[in-house]
Automatic annotation (TrEMBL), chain A:
CDD domains: TRX_Fd_NuoE. It comes from the Bacteria. One of its GO terms (molecular function) is 2 iron, 2 sulfur cluster binding. Pfam families: 2Fe-2S_thioredx. It comes from Anaerolinea thermophila (strain DSM 14523 / JCM 11388 / NBRC 100420 / UNI-1). This is NADH dehydrogenase. [2Fe-2S] cluster binds at residues 85, 90, 126, 130. Its cofactor is [2Fe-2S] cluster. InterPro entries: NADP_DH_HndA-like, NuoE-like, NuoE_dom, NuoE_N, Thioredoxin-like_sf.
Automatic annotation (TrEMBL), chain B:
One of its GO terms (molecular function) is NADH dehydrogenase (ubiquinone) activity. The keyword Membrane does not apply. The keyword Iron applies. This is NAD-reducing hydrogenase subunit. Keywords: 4Fe-4S, Iron, Iron-sulfur, Metal-binding.
């Protein structure tokens, strides 16, 4: 298996660098995984194995931690990640309709990535901007007071 | 300390950054150097000014408080020359007046009392000197020079401050337990992962006034004898993490953190730990597991963290708001704090008001205020002047209270008695168009997904609840479902390991108690009174109002709408998937739900 990815980054180098920055201790496991996730977009199994080797933690435990947290991805994600806030304040002001429209436009469900790897759709528990719900975040851009009709326009801003 | 005659605050809200806030900062600094003003005027970053979508990038110039908006780097030389060299305000760059307010907080509303939020939106969170100017770290100095740890604990106990995370345990007593534990190492943890969905006050405090939390933690560390502390912050709040790290660095530079704090021989240091998106990590034992680098799964208590916490050592955990109250209690005294609130619930509480209310956002009110005052006086009433149906307090583990509870005083005991909880302070107001069965189902979907899976009642019980609720919403409810739900709620509540499972049935139990008729309508009459549940409604076109413009037919994704141009259209209920698009696009309000 090649450790080169389309984005040209070498997973083993990223892992080694993350471990070096944070230190080889168990309590740094989550920060290390977060760092790899940020650098690489997700944590491929090869990366998880390398973390286990360097930190001397059983592989099963590294996998178990990586799959427990929502913000760590063990599957490749799309170029743009859409976070949809599914908290109650967003829900009661029309979040459900926005969610339906999002799924309809992208033709994928929560946690899935479009076949062309452009979009990933992720639900999050709360983005903390409940005053302007419904809220979605695409990459680092936040959109508040979203209505279903706005979805196509918002999506069209990304390529 | 350098003295500047003027401070320029540049908004680095994500939207402003996208529109070139950093280029503005560079241009400002370049121009100030060119004009020889760099020692007189300081350029600072701030989180947000006005409405970034309309006005970004924008700046505020103090002490005048002039708000300039929609700036481009080309405007800067002229602005600097006019405003800073010649002292003339440049009218053409000014933002419209009323947009200066901080939208999330705004000016204090009727009945608001700000203790925890007093500095939010007022000081620069990235500048420790701003905090010090507002009596910051005075309480720490007082504690370290004049008070013994016992006296600190006594003061906090007498104030009546209870944990603002929800359970409402007396803070002073919690500290005492931890102080009494004998160990070579003790820890202080700040639970900043507790953002219940719908409760963003902690984010706001961390982003706007991080030092008040840090100061509270140092005081707690002194009181219980801890040397190391952690702030476990939600990963969903990247700006809070950044602000905290800056604040900790500055506190170290000023000698408030680290070895030999203020020369008193007391040492304590702090570190930020980022969560990774697991709701259950707001539970204290799960949070500690996560700091240790494990799956964030709770464990049974006892032993309580005060005896055996992080790495088996005594640990004190409080949330953001609890710590932020501490410096004020030390400075102004226990009696001052205890003068606010009710007999058993003292002080103020921040709430995140959301949902169908006119003024959404953060509020801080004295405990004991009624729900009616919160919804109508502080929140301005229901949006579009619709009727009030319910208020949900306490996040996903809370309950929905109907109108007859509007005069309920808000304190820990009254809310619990009514079948809800204080939680960390989320409040969702719902108008008459909300289906309570759907809301219960919605919360169950959430807890079911967030259950860590360690204990069976929570993992499987919530799933069964969700299945039954989904069936009811789909019009497949059966006789006996209500009883089944009640029984399950009881069992999950008593048998679950942690607060998540124990609180999970609350939304179902409270809606069953107060809105049972809606469940009955769904199950026995196959009718959704609020017209929300898709399986139980049909869309219809009112022939008299329809103009035959064909917009609905063209937008229908399943071609369920037919009709001639300029003639009333019809919806075929067998094909219709009830997506509601036709209703959204109709310009003549000719489509109704039955």
């Amino acid at each position: 298996m090649s450790n080169e990815q389309p984005n040209g980054k070498n997973i083993l180098e990223i892992v080694r660098h993350a471990v070096e920055v944070h230190g080889k201790t168990r309590e740094e496991l989550i920060p290390i995984l977060q760092e790899i996730n940020r650098q690489y977009g997700f944590i491929p199994s090869q990366g998880l194995e390398e973390v286990a080797r360097l930190l001397q933690i059983p592989k099963s435990q590294v996998f178990s931690v990586a799959t427990f947290y929502h913000m760590l991805n063990v599957k490749e994600m799309g170029r743009h990640i859409i976070l949809f806030c599914e908290s109650a304040p967003c829900h009661v002001v029309g979040g459900r309709e926005v969610w339906r429209r999002l799924k309809q436009e992208l033709k994928i469900d929560a946690g899935e990535t479009t076949p062309d790897k452009k979009w990933s759709l992720v639900t999050v528990s709360c983005l903390g901007v409940c005053g302007v719900g419904p809220v979605i975040v695409i990459d680092e851009d936040m959109y508040g007071n979203v209505t279903p009709e706005m979805i196509p326009d918002i999506l069209a801003r990304y390529n | 300390m350098a003295f500047y005659r003027s401070h320029v605050l540049v908004s680095v809200d994500p939207e402003c950054v996208k529109r070139g806030a950093h280029q503005i900062i560079d241009a400002l600094n370049d121009e100030l150097v060119a004009q020889g003003l760099i020692d007189e005027i300081q350029v600072l970053e701030t989180s947000r000014i006005g409405d970034p979508v309309l006005f970004g990038p924008d700046i505020i110039v103090y002490p005048e408080g002039v708000h300039y908006a929609c700036l481009s780097p080309d405007d800067i030389p002229y602005l600097v020359e006019e405003h800073f060299l010649k002292g003339r305000i440049v009218e053409k760059f000014r933002a419209q007046e009323k947009k200066i307010v901080d939208e999330e907080l705004g000016a204090p509303k009727a009945k608001e009392v700000r203790v925890v939020l007093r500095n939010c939106g007022v000081i620069d969170p990235n500048n420790i000197e701003d905090y010090i100017a507002e009596d910051g770290y005075m309480a720490l100095a007082k504690v370290l020079s004049d008070m013994t740890p016992e006296q600190v604990i006594d003061e906090v106990t007498r104030s009546g401050l209870r944990g603002r995370g929800g359970a409402g345990f007396l803070t002073g007593r919690k500290w005492q337990f931890c102080r009494n534990s004998q160990a070579d190492m003790k820890y202080i943890v700040c639970n900043a992962d507790e953002g219940d969905p719908g409760a963003f006050m902690n984010r706001r405090v961390l982003e706007s006034d991080p030092h008040s939390v840090i100061e509270g933690m140092i005081i707690a560390a002194y009181a219980i004898g801890a040397r190391q502390g952690y702030i476990y912050c939600r990963a969903e709040y990247p700006l809070a993490v950044k602000t905290l790290n800056i604040a900790i660095k500055q506190a170290r530079e000023f000698g408030f953190l680290g070895e030999n704090i203020l020369g008193t021989g007391f040492s304590f240091d702090l570190e930020v730990r980022q969560g990774a998106g697991a709701f259950v990590c707001g539970e204290e034992t799960a949070l500690m597991a996560s700091i240790e680098g494990r799956r964030g799964e709770p464990r049974p208590r006892p032993p309580f963290p005060a005896v055996s916490g992080l790495w088996g050592k005594p640990t004190n955990i409080n949330n953001v708001e609890t710590y932020a109250n501490v410096p004020q209690i030390i400075l102004k005294g226990a009696d001052w704090f205890a003068s606010m609130g009710t007999e058993k619930s003292k002080g103020t509480k921040t709430f995140a008001l959301a949902g169908d209310v006119k003024h959404t956002g953060l509020i801080e009110v004295p405990l004991g205020i009624t729900l009616r005052e919160i919804v109508y006086d502080v929140g301005g009433g229901i949006k579009d002047d619709k009727g009030f149906k319910a208020i949900q307090t306490g996040g996903p583990m809370g309950g929905c209270l109907p109108a007859e509870f509007l005069d309920l005083p808000v304190d820990y005991e009254s809310l619990t008695q009514a079948g809800s909880i204080m939680g960390s302070g989320g409040m969702v107001v719902m108008d008459e168009e909300t289906c309570m069965v759907d809301i219960a189902r919605f919360f169950m979907e959430f807890t079911q997904e967030e259950s860590c899976g360690k204990c069976t009642p929570c993992r499987i019980g919530t799933r069964r609840l969700l299945e039954i609720l989904t069936r009811i919403c789909e019009g497949k409810g059966e006789d006996g479902d209500i009883e089944r739900l009640e029984e399950l709620c009881d069992q999950i509540r008593t048998a679950s390991l942690c607060g998540l499972g124990q609180g999970a049935p609350n939304p179902v139990a409270s809606t069953l108690k107060y809105f049972r008729h809606e469940y009955e309508a769904h199950i026995y009459e196959k009718r959704c009174p609020a017209k929300v549940c898709r399986a139980l409604i049909t869309y219809e076109i009112v022939p008299e109002t329809c103009t035959g413009c064909t917009v609905c037919a063209r937008n229908c994704p399943v071609n369920a709408i037919t009709g001639e141009r300029r003639q009333p259209h019809k919806i075929d209920p067998d094909i219709c998937v009830r997506c509601g698009i036709c209703m959204q696009v109709c310009n003549f309000n000719a489509i109704v739900i039955n």
